[in-house]
């Protein structure tokens, strides 16, 4: 059976990456709009209603508009934007997050892709909260660096034109980044973490870190118990995995760039009771296009890893 898939925003950074992953897939008939039609309301409304699946690779407002244009009960939506990540009636499209999440995605008509930073943060923290090693009210923080493609076409142009020459810049300085809501909601914690994002002068890739003072946590978990909780959570995943970090001395932002996988590592100093958890992923891979294609596969009842770069 062939499913029709309309990519709205197909010439943007995320849209192009999804097209590459779906090229040559016989299960899907990919529809895109070219030229003036790609922003023409009537052409988009028709494509949105004709398709079995729609993948929205648009700014938030345009994504909300696109959803409002769907006037049938058949078309199923995957939204790559941040418009619906904590919205009523939407399933959070992070298949590995909870034991029943992939099944919920498979049944859903409205799936929201996670943000790239929350993908790293939640992968590290949710299993620790679920198992009680980190309490729901613990004051968490997350430090993260992204490649500049995380800012889409506009940021790519800034860095590649030479207008922005920095090696590394911190932002989100008002501590109100748009990813806070989904981090809090889906980690199931009582307060948003202190989030310290930055952009590096590299095209793609991410390094997301959560520091944990183990000595101060109520259960005083060991590094080994943190590692076990994470290993157990992703034991069956071909996409998210914990690697043994004993011999690791450096972690590069590009570690998983160009792939759709995510790698977790636990470092620490047992004597001081301190841990440093690190996730690496590609902002355009598991952070965007890889997750969208994974969700599409799951919703279509196909092997979740089909077409992914692992
Ligand atoms: N880049 C990343 O790493 C990630 C991005 N995302 C999210 O994915 C979405 C897309 O981001 P990204 O690909 O980076 O952004 P880009 O700016 O690269 O692409 C967005 C595309 O949407 C098009 N567009 C804008 N408004 C409309 C409209 N009204 N109708 C039709 N097309 C429209 C733009 O057209 P034009 O070409 O004319 O500007 C552009 O091609 C965003 O919501 C972003 O937040 C999510 C995770 C990671
Ligand atoms: C480097 C950079 O600017 N990154 C983007 C997030 C990219 C991402 O996850 O996209 P969503 O907009 O879909 O959440 C930012 O911080 O706003």
UniProtKB/TrEMBL annotation:
The active site is at residue 116. It is found in: Cytoplasm. The keyword Cytoplasm applies. It catalyses: N-acetyl-L-glutamate 5-semialdehyde + phosphate + NADP(+) = N-acetyl-L-glutamyl 5-phosphate + NADPH + H(+). Keywords: Amino-acid biosynthesis, Arginine biosynthesis, Cytoplasm, NADP, Oxidoreductase. Transmembrane segments: none annotated. InterPro entries: AGPR (IPR050085), AGPR_AS (IPR023013), AGPR_dimerisation_dom (IPR058924), AGPR_type-2 (IPR010136), NAD(P)-bd_dom_sf (IPR036291), Semialdehyde_DH_NAD-bd (IPR000534). CDD domains: AGPR_2_C. Pfam families: Semialdhyde_dh, Semialdhyde_dhC_1. Pathway: Amino-acid biosynthesis; L-arginine biosynthesis; N(2)-acetyl-L-ornithine from L-glutamate: step 3/4. It is an enzyme of class 1 (oxidoreductase). SUPFAM superfamilies: Glyceraldehyde-3-phosphate dehydrogenase-like, C-terminal domain (SSF55347), NAD(P)-binding Rossmann-fold domains (SSF51735). Its main location: cytoplasm. One of its GO terms (molecular function) is N-acetyl-gamma-glutamyl-phosphate reductase activity. Residues 4-105 form the Semialdehyde dehydrogenase NAD-binding domain. Its EC number is 1.2.1.38. PANTHER family: N-ACETYL-GAMMA-GLUTAMYL-PHOSPHATE REDUCTASE, CHLOROPLASTIC-RELATED (PTHR32338:SF10), N-ACETYL-GAMMA-GLUTAMYL-PHOSPHATE REDUCTASE, CHLOROPLASTIC-RELATED-RELATED (PTHR32338). HAMAP family: ArgC_type2 (MF_01110). Catalyzes the NADPH-dependent reduction of N-acetyl-5-glutamyl phosphate to yield N-acetyl-L-glutamate 5-semialdehyde. Belongs to the NAGSA dehydrogenase family. Type 2 subfamily. This is N-acetyl-gamma-glutamyl-phosphate reductase. The lineage of its organism: Bacteria, Pseudomonadati, Pseudomonadota, Alphaproteobacteria, Sphingomonadales.
């Amino acid at each position: 059976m062939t499913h029709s898939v309309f990519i709205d925003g197909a010439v943007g950074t995320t849209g192009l990456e999804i097209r590459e992953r779906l090229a040559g897939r016989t299960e899907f008939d990919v529809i895109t709009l070219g030229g003036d039609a790609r922003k023409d309301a009537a052409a988009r409304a028709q494509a949105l209603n004709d398709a079995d699946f729609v993948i929205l690779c648009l700014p938030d407002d345009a994504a909300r508009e696109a959803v409002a244009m769907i006037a049938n009960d058949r078309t199923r939506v995957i939204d790559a934007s941040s418009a619906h990540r904590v919205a009523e009636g939407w399933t959070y499209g992070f298949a590995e997050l909870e034991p029943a999440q992939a099944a919920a995605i498979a049944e859903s008509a409205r799936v929201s892709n996670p943000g790239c930073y929350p993908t790293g943060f939640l992968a590290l923290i949710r299993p620790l909260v679920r198992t009680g090693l980190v309490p729901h009210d613990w004051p968490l923080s997350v430090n993260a660096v992204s490649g500049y493609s995380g800012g889409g076409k506009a940021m790519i142009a800034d860095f590649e034109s030479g207008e922005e020459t920095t090696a590394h810049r911190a932002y989100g300085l008002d501590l109100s980044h748009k990813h806070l809501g989904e981090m809090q909601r889906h980690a199931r914690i009582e307060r948003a973490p202190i989030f310290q994002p930055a952009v590096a002068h590299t095209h793609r890739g991410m390094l997301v870190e959560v520091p944990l003072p183990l000595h101060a946590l109520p259960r005083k978990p060991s590094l080994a118990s943190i590692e076990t909780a994470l290993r157990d959570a992703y034991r069956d995943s071909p996409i998210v995995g914990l690697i043994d970090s004993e011999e690791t001395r450096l972690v590069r932002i590009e570690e998983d760039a160009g792939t759709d996988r995510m790698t977790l590592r636990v470092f620490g100093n047992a004597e001081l009771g301190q841990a440093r958890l690190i996730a690496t992923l590609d902002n355009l891979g598991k952070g965007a296009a890889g997750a969208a294609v994974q969700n599409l596969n799951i919703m279509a009842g196909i092997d979740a890893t089909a077409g992914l770069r692992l």
